Amino acid sequence: MNCLKLACIFLTSCLLISCSHNETDIPVAPLQSHQWVCDTGAIIEWQAENKKATKIQLRLDGSEKLYILDKIQTTAKGILYSNGDLAFRIKDSSGVIFLANNDEIIGQDCKAN
């Protein structure tokens, strides 16, 4: 009977130890940051906020202002991100950035430098 109690205590301890594992201790690779230059000379620094890239963080021309753009749609023209004021479309390894309210282009043919 004592062996059975010891075995139960041992198994319970093992279960508790495995459940107490904290996944935040696992190192997470940082998301890739991009710096692109457009044909107009505009500089775009951007990175996805998460692995699914449902949002991106974007800075324009080295500004301190950080734009958070939501993924709006994915089509044959690329992936469109916008916050209602600023829009950024990415296709393959190039992009275009423009004002969302009037489609005024800030930069096109934006690519990694």
UniProtKB/TrEMBL annotation:
Alphabetically ordered keywords of this record: Signal
InterPro entries for this protein: MliC_sf
Cross-referenced Gene3D superfamilies: 2.40.128.200
Signal peptide interval: 1-23
Protein name as annotated: C-type lysozyme inhibitor domain-containing protein
Record lineage: Bacteria, Pseudomonadati, Pseudomonadota, Gammaproteobacteria, Pseudomonadales
